[in-house]
Write a structure and sequence with these properties.
nine-stranded antiparallel β-sheet; 31% strand; mainly beta
């Protein structure tokens, strides 16, 4: 329930300026105004939100599959119109934690999450989602979303800004998030994290006698127009917080294996809504038009092939190659993996509530009357939609369904309050909900992202070898980027690496650039659906002579208009 009872806001009737005999009409009006049921109801709809999780159970697997994961998730415009920066929601994704067995440390939250979605700090958002990496250092002291993108934008106090290195010579990573092709509407976005032995273990961490492990958790993509590794977390990102928490040394993702049994959910923090009530006090809600993928012949795939890997999938072969053994192609060995199965099970914690409502007073949606979880096959998950949804079409022509916009608060057989979907004509006019709108808005914050420009900064010394170049992205922004020698990119200069350690990493990356191309599969391919595209503008070609050992680094992103 709301924290503020709006009945105490009723304005007193103003004192008359002169005495006149009241007419019968005036008396009736006064009587109506002071009727208890009118005083108890505020006719103005209240702002609120829909938020919660969609839960996706899946089979557990043995702990030995501890070298990362991959999955395919549908990418689509969740809302019909982007409503502004209050909107925050991911699409389906996961949280990958270090595996500790029985030694799980306390107060040491740290993982790789991120995924597809929209965030309150997204400056150049559209209806099409973006992708962020979402690495979280211990207890959120820092986080990292991509090269040059961390906790906040204060370059004087970077907090994850230098945590991620650019690996691919073909993909730009804008600080606002990695763009998909505008109009994507249900295609599958393939991604995963596997460790690469690009670094070596260290006995010290930023001068402290604490170890840093060798694991470089690397983002692999499988899309229609790009395949392969793109970026990776530098090991010192995970170990640096142990300087203040030495009891955690050796227990973070720089050194520990991954836990293969991850949650798979869709986390929604804010979808705009309005709440009102009729003259009898019955509560109603209206939610911004919310959409999901659909298929002509039944449920559409939302999640596909959640796969966990052991060290034989990639690490062992690449490590042997770096040590002088046979070339590793980079193709991830599916024989060293297990695919986690789905069943026709799932749940939802989505709730609708007015701003300021305490968590224990929020009311859940009767989700099972709208959608039923279904395993399309053992490796693919979706929803079977009820007749409460309506067909919709994305701007690019993709097939979608729209969830109900209107809901009424009702009691179920056990007396629990639930929001149940109702038709627009079932909502009384006096609620005022029909007059509310959810227009397309730009974010209030559209200032440029700009990296340090002083000559002595790590962005300028030793600095790039070519540029500047520009790319106009589908989200309406323009990025400026330069070509750096891999070992001289700012992230490497801030990674607690000696010049010799950076040069060793440079040699390994040059081996990858010579051998691993962008037009063949690395992750096991999907067996269903169509792959999504990255925004074509983020795919670039290295200048002549810089094809090996050089990477593009974005230094500015600003609105095109």
């Amino acid at each position: 329930m709301p924290t503020t009872d709006r009945r105490d806001r009723a304005r007193p009737w103003p004192a008359p300026t002169r005495r006149v005999p009241p007419s019968l009409t005036s008396l009736l009006l006064l009587s109506a105004l002071f009727a208890p049921e009118v005083l108890a109801r505020d006719p103005a709809p209240r702002k609120g939100e829909m938020a919660g999780y969609l839960l996706v159970p899946h089979a557990r697997v043995e702990r030995r599959f501890d070298a990362g994961f991959s999955m395919y998730v549908a990418a689509w415009p969740l809302l019909e119109h982007y409503p502004g920066q209050d909107f925050q929601s991911g699409l389906f994704g996961t949280w990958m934690f270090a595996q500790h067995g029985d030694r799980k440390p306390e107060k040491a939250y740290s993982d790789i999450e991120g995924g597809l979605g929209w965030w309150r700090d997204t400056r150049f958002a559209t209806e099409t989602p973006k992708f962020i990496m979402g690495g979280v250092a211990v207890e959120f002291v820092e986080w990292a979303n991509g090269p040059g993108a961390g906790k906040g934008r204060d370059w004087d106090h970077p907090a994850g800004h230098y945590a991620i290195a650019q690996l691919s010579p073909w993909v730009l990573w804008p600080p606002d998030g990695l763009n998909l092709r505008q109009g994507t509407a249900g295609e599958l976005f393939g991604y995963g994290y596997l460790p690469l032995p690009l670094a070596t273990a260290k006995a010290t961490t930023f001068g402290a006698d604490l170890p840093t492990g060798p694991q470089c958790w690397t983002l692999f993509l499988n899309t229609a127009n790009f395949k392969g590794p793109v970026t990776f977390f530098l090991p010192a990102f995970w170990s640096k917080p142990t300087i203040d928490r030495p009891e955690l040394a050796g227990m973070m993702l720089d050194a520990r294996p991954s836990d293969p049994n991850k949650a798979v959910q869709m986390e929604t923090q804010h979808v705009p809504a309005f709440l009102g009530e009729d003259a009898s006090g019955t509560r109603y809600a209206r939610v911004a038009p919310t959409r999901f993928p659909a298929a002509a012949d039944g449920p559409a795939p939302l999640i596909h092939r959640i796969t966990a890997y052991d060290r034989g999938a990639l690490w062992d072969g690449v490590a042997a190659w770096f040590d002088g053994g046979p070339e590793a192609t980079g193709t991830i060995d599916s024989r060293a993996s297990v695919v986690q199965a789905f069943e026709d099970r799932g749940g939802a914690t989505w709730r609708i509530y007015a701003d300021g409502t305490p968590r224990d007073a929020t009311v859940p949606i009767a989700w099972d009357a709208i959608a039923g979880p279904v395993a399309l096959d053992p490796t693919t998950y979706g929803y079977r939609w009820s007749d409460k949804v309506t067909p919709a079409t994305a701007e690019g022509g993709g097939r979608l369904v729209s969830l109900p916009e209107y809901y009424r608060a009702e009691r179920d057989a056990e007396g629990r309050e639930r929001w149940r979907a109702v038709a627009a004509e079932e909502v009384p006019a006096e609620t005022g909900l029909a007059a509310e709108t959810f227009p397309r808005r730009r974010g209030a914050e559209r200032g440029a992202y700009v990296t340090p420009e002083t000559p002595e900064s790590c962005w300028k010394t030793p600095g790039p070898v070519a540029g500047p170049c520009e790319a106009r992205l589908g989200d309406g922004s323009v990025v400026t980027y330069w070509w750096y020698r891999f070992a001289d990119q700012p992230a490497l200069l801030n990674a607690d690496l000696s010049p010799a350690e950076r040069e060793a990493m440079q040699r390994r990356v040059e081996m990858l650039h010579r051998s691993w191309r962008r037009d063949r599969d690395y992750l096991p391919p999907p067996t269903i659906g169509t792959l999504a595209d990255l925004d074509p503008a983020v795919i670039v070609e290295p200048p002549p002579g810089l094809e090996i050992g050089h990477v593009p680094i974005v230094t500015r992103q600003a609105a095109a208009d």
